[in-house]
UniProtKB/TrEMBL annotation:
Residues 15-183 form the Fructose-1-6-bisphosphatase class I N-terminal domain. One of its GO terms (molecular function) is fructose 1,6-bisphosphate 1-phosphatase activity. This is Fructose-1,6-bisphosphatase class 1. It comes from Parathalassolituus penaei. GO terms for biological process: fructose 1,6-bisphosphate metabolic process; fructose 6-phosphate metabolic process; fructose metabolic process; gluconeogenesis; sucrose biosynthetic process.
Amino acid sequence: MQRLRNFLQQHCSDNGLIEVIDQIATISKDIAHLIQLGDLAGVLGSAGQENVQGENQKKLDVIANDLLKDGLAALPSIKGLASEEETLPVGCNPDGRYLVLFDPLDGSSNIDINVTVGTIFSILAAPAELDGGDERAFLQPGKQQLAAGYVLYGPSTLLVLTTGNGVFSFTLDSRVGEYLLQRENIRVDTKTAEFAINMSNQRFWKPAMQNYVADLLRGEEGPLGKRYNMRWVASMVAEIHRILTRGGVFMYPWDSREPKKPGKLRLMYEANPMSLLMEQAGGKGSTSTESILSVQPLGIHDRVSVVIGSAEEVATVERYHEA
Ligand code: P6P
């Protein structure tokens, strides 16, 4: 089975981009190891501080963030970094060609209960005229991403990525410390009978989303005409990986708990990379009214309403929001 680096050298013509992806993969091996050790490494539990999102940081949030920040800043080709765990962008090498955005440990509320979490990354071209610490350099729509992917720390540690020519999955063989190619040109089913949403927020959604989910629950007797199953892991990386594997639709819509915010999830380092992967696999990423990859960001921590998955089901959600 082909090793990640060999695959990238055959598949991608941008040697600088290969270096960045390879470095993320290398760093992820240390993160995977610490997650597997858990309590034995003393890395579980709260870090006793909040991040820019006002969320309680876990120790592993901070550790994963520092490993990625330090490891990427060491690359001459990196001009700047932006992280869910960092209030401001981090300027790196003035002559660098790439910007990397990441959620170092998405779903970290699952860490203490030993449920799957992940690292999400997005790579942009660095504008020559802007400093790598200047937020404006990062404010590019998702369709401009050069590459995107995630590392899923589950029963297996998987790296799933795209450089714009299909989606590929690699499994970490921890005996040799290598990511080995497992799945090529992943395609997501256009239809589905499985949805993922946090139902406890039902009363806070817009009527259009309430109507759509009510019709999902009506199954064969309803206008959607089939029985649906539901999943909710509370870890976006796990949900998206399931959808890439067997279809489905993942939703985190606007809700009235924080009416001034368009949604809970972050555009730049959650919705954009996952939407690029999904669209490269034949699926769709929508805010429920427009393509996520077309949204013009106003800040690196912008939030967005998210509907991502099987193309026909995402289109159905959009239809409910047109009416
Ligand atoms: P809730 C994790 O905190 C996260 O950002 C996503 O990974 C996940 O899909 C969502 O939030 C879970 O949110 O409200 O169900 O805890």
